[in-house]
Design goal:
Length: 616
Amino acid sequence: MDAPLALYRRYRPETFTEVLGQEHVTGPLRRALADNRVHHAYLFSGPRGCGKTTSARILARTLNCEQFPVAEPCGECQSCRDLARGGPGSLDVIEIDAASHGGVDDTRDLRERATFAPMTSRFKVYVIDEAHMVSPQGFNALLKVVEEPPPHVKFIFATTEPDKVIGTIRSRTHHYPFRLLPPRLLADYLAQICEREAVAIEPQALPLVVRAGAGSARDSLSVLDQLIGGAGPDGVTYDLATGLLGYTPETLLDSVVDAFAAGDGGGVFTLVDQVVEGGREPRRFVEDLLQRLRDLLVLSHLPSAGEGLLDVPVDQAERLAGQAARFGAADLVRSAEVVAATLADLRGPTAPRLLLEIMCARVLLPAADDSAGGVQARLDRIERRMAVGTTPAPPVPADAPVPALVEPPPVPQPVEPPTEPPTEPPPVPQPVEPPPVEPPAATASAAVGNELHQVRTLWNDVLDDLRSSRYVWSLVGQNAQVVAAEPGIVTLGFSTVGLLQQFQGREQPVAASLSRVLLGDWQVRAIVDPAARQAQPHRAEPTAAVPPVSAPDSARARSAQPAVAQRPAGSGAADEPGGGAAPDDADLDSDASGSTRELLTRELGATVIEEIPHGR
């Protein structure tokens, strides 16, 4: 039994109307043929498999039709039957493969035979395929006959590289550029072919055939012919297409993208191992991943792209939209750039698995990328985490209960001033009573839920934003920790009452930084939390209560008092009880030496032996 012809031969167009996706070429040609405005030489150019040679045959068939001038061949006359699909052909239509007949001798032979009149047809038509393969000497030998051919001779050059055709030949032809077929148009055409062949094909497999054909009708039909030949009772299935064509399954791509979105490095490297150990081609996997990132990037900017811009089924478009929502635009762009760079590197001698793992590590860790794209990707991830875990909270009433962890220690009594009265004694702040609360049964870890996790996760960012207030930043960054958080309120714990007194009245800069980093309106409460002492074991904290001391020990007693009480009068800071505005940089510079000495004495128990003054 004779084997059937290949699909691209069985379904080769016979008229310009049947040529798919080239209306910008077939329309002008049909009008020129109908009006008998036919040129003596044509140049058809374009990618492979888009219909150049087929259109050249249709043009030759129409020129020799008995009803010429006509836009389409009649299909009934002898010439049309000879040149029809599966016909014997005509001696007056000569097809030449320039790849094997492009020399000077072949061109000279063509030029001599062109002078003879056609045998049975109106015109002698020369179809020169792969015209860019003609040598420059051959083109020069052919130039005269192409420029001024006999009235009965027509030339049709078909090539994929029109730039290699010398300019003297191109200038004497009518140039018609052919294009690749759009994916949606090609998919509909392939579905019609399957209906004619009575072959079932799954909707998920059809885009793979279109993608393998790369816009070429002939290549797409060849791929479809291969799949139909290996199809079983269920027809062309998605598994069959991915297996024969080597594409990465959608489930594997979904797993990789989900792992990237969740920052699951272990899961990503496990999937890379599956790709390599499963025998899949690494380059094809990277291509498929890049295509998926492209789809997600389009969906992030246009959520309705699944209806037109993406050639995917409806259920897959919904799944891709959910994946795109888990990324930021900058993060997707950076990830696509990393994958595209790896695709170029896979052509070298480096082991593919190593390149795949490095690619995944770069996608997972934008902090390793110090470019603008890496910085923007990190900002995208921070914003997504804030959008998921935090919401702007309404203002909290001033009389709201303050969460506390333990009973505050006794408040130290103010220390007697030294026996030698100074000229201007510094004001001593009155001890501030913490609000009485009952000791809760839970610890700090159980005080709150998601808000505490978010605040502690972004606490370093809050401290970085607080650097504009150096005093508050130093006080909070070194001595406080987040012990509780609820919508709109963050509670800071200090290990001693003295540190708490120094912070009171300076909550506004911290609240402003929280609002800028976490968004929304935030309030700051401060309490005494002995657990803060355990979080900072390297610090030597003062005792909770200071016993009365005699006059000779007044200097040592002053070192145990809060830093607010030790500041000399006239420093410009608000030192009255209850706190005041945070000291600015000028205040810190004015008493830098005194505060440094007090800090060393209070925190480290050091004794200043000698101080060398430095000029300012």
